[in-house]
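User: If only I could read backbone structure tokens as easily as an amino acid sequence. Underneath my words sits a plain record pairing an amino acid chain with its backbone structure tokens. This is the protein in question:
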Amino acid sequence: MHGDPQPRNIMVHGAKITGLIDWEYSRLGDPALDAGWTLFFFSLYPELNNYRHQFYNDYITKVKLPEISNRIFFYEVYAASRMMAFAVSARDYSTEKFKESGVFLSKIQEAFFKYEERVRNIIG
């Protein structure tokens, strides 16, 4: 697995993925982890929702593992929780870089609360 599938590490040409960079976190592991992280990042940009569904459907079709969809959702929630912790801690910094990241950090928080609501609905 890649270990860090986020937009800045995915090279594309049009709608086609042409390469992946930044392999420092690659390792053997559950392939659902990469899918969960990727879907989380897609969730930050509602305008990419069609691509998100396309990615998910293609992934599920090609990776035929038991219970993969449940594990993918688990890792989406995991990614949302980790990124929410990052967003909250980033607010404590006063550097210009973090001030400029405000929109991205807001997207993370918004996505986190949507995942939280989905989890509560599943449990309830």
